[in-house]
Amino acid sequence: MPLKEKTIERIYWTIGEVAVQLGVNTSLLRYWEKEFGMLRPKRTSKGDRLYTKDDIAKVRDIQHLLKERGFTIQGAKEQLRAGTRPEDRLQEAVKRLSDVRTRLVDLRRELAGGADEVPAALASMTA
């Protein structure tokens, strides 16, 4: 039976590595750390910042809200305090839109059936 090789997964990244990964300056990461209390990377005895996967995910969320969605610092803080990630909200919105579409398609089928009465789906929406 062959031995399985252990893959060593990295635990920490330096601030420089994270900055390169995200395409931002290290000073911006330090600023975000000051502004967003939830972002607290581990520090070495010399004071160097060490980021975990969770820290990097938080930084990505902050970057997404500020750079891509156009939030202000205060707006991003409030959004993050709400506790839902942008991807989660997007999936929820897609599901709701899909449900609405299904209801509309059903309503259209009932109307196309030539029924003289108010369709049940329409009656339940107006009640």
> What is the CA-atom radius of gyration, in angstroms?
24 Å
Provide the structure class: mainly alpha
Largest sheet: 3 strands, antiparallel
* Strand residue percentage: 5-15%
The run of helices and strands is EHHEEHHHH
If you average the pLDDT, what whole number results? 85
Helical content stands at 55-70%
- What's the CATH architecture of the largest domain? Orthogonal Bundle
The CATH topology of the largest domain, please? Answer: Multidrug-efflux Transporter Regulator, Chain: A, Domain 2
What assembly state would you assign to the polypeptide chains in this entry?
Answer: single chain
Number of helices: 6
Overall strand count: 3
Shape: elongated
Distance between the termini: 68 Å
**Side-by-side strand order of the widest sheet:** 1-3-2
Task: Describe this entry's structure for a reader.
The protein has 127 residues and is mainly alpha-helical. It folds into two domains: 71 residues, Multidrug-efflux Transporter Regulator, Chain: A, Domain 2; 40 residues. 61% of the residues lie in helices and 6% in strands. The chain has a three-stranded antiparallel beta sheet. It starts with 12 loop residues before the first strand and ends with a helix.
